[in-house]
Specification:
Layout (H helix, E strand, L loop, with lengths): L1 E6 L11 H4 L4 H11 L4 E6 L3 H14 L2 E5 L8 H9 L4 E5 L21 E4 L5 H11 L1
Helix pairs in contact: 3-4
């Protein structure tokens, strides 16, 4: 099974930025750990700070992979366009957030993406990605 992890804005700074919220491991280092943990999956990774690039990658993923793990970052709360892209593709998408978005600022409580995902995993730190992969491992 081929799975694409897509990270949105500022998640390239994971491990450096607000370590009290996002932890102190870089995503590249974490990616190696989960690739070792899930050898049955071909895991690819894409990160962009640009909304349109995320939309393009979601549309391409529909033809290239079996599933997507998506952390759209702040676009989760603002981007109808990314929500529409998730809605338009035929493969399952799990929404992931490192922090508990419900315990943060009120504007973060709304996800425009969640209604079009098979599920959302929030608040388990960077381990949220592993939990999303476990979903695909059992389904």
């Amino acid at each position: 099974m081929k799975i694409l992890i897509i990270n949105g804005p500022n998640l390239n700074l994971t491990g450096e930025r607000e370590t009290n919220i996002y932890g102190n491991i870089t995503f590249d280092d974490y990616l190696e750990l989960i690739q070792d943990r899930f050898p049955q999956f071909e895991i690819n990774y894409f990160q962009s700070n640009i909304e349109g690039e995320i939309i393009n990658r979601l549309q391409e993923a529909n033809l290239e992979v079996n599933a997507v793990v998506l952390n759209a970052g702040a676009y989760t709360h603002t981007s109808i366009a990314i929500a529409d892209a998730v809605r338009a593709i035929d493969i399952p998408v799990v929404e992931v957030h490192i922090s508990n978005i419900i315990a943060r600022e009120e504007f973060r409580h709304v996800s425009h993406i969640a209604p079009y995902c098979v599920g959302s995993i929030i608040g388990f730190g960077i381990d949220s990605y592993r939990l999303a992969l476990r979903y695909f491992d059992t389904n």
